[in-house]
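hiii, so i know i said id send this last week but things got crazy w the move. better late than never?? heres the sequnce for the chain we talked about at the cafe, plus the structure i predicted for it. fair warning i was half asleep when i ran it
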Amino acid sequence: MRVSYVLSLLTLLLLAGVPAFSQQFGNPENLAPYIPSPQIVVDKMLEAGRVKPGETVYDLGSGDGRIVITAVQKFKAKAVGIELSPELSRSTTEKIRSLGLQDKAKIMQGSMLRMDMSPADVVTLYLLTSSNDILKPILEKQLKGGARVVSHDFEFRGWKPVDIVKVEADGRNHTIYVYEIAAKKGQ
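okay and structure toks below
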């Protein structure tokens, strides 16, 4: 009973986007709990992000690699996952290897706050609004004009989405926010 209460409370806090919640994961660079996106949401995220063959997708907090793998297999893109957890990084790298996708997909183990994301045409993520606030200036600085940022369920405050997609999966509604980085001077 107590465990289910705690899980319910954590889920409520996550869905509410409570800023302090993002700081309760131990490592301050861990910006959200590991909650895999349902496959139908993954597909819709990549569709909404208008991923084209040959483009590069970066998935922040890549977990089990389902976005990275789907980007390569279904969308013929190159994909890079950034994952803080060494265990998830190892198991996902092994999964990519077993699928023979290592020429098109890779997982970089480390903090998304310290990685160079400038090669990305599309960035996907499923973090908290408070985490998006932390990432926003990094993405604005690193991403080229026209790059798309696709966020599952949590908005980027101050950015106007170019598209909002609703999808039902696993008995609940999910919202996908798509943003486009403005061209920088001289681009």
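btw Residues 100 and 127 are 29 Å apart (CA to CA). thought thatd interest u
miss u guys!!
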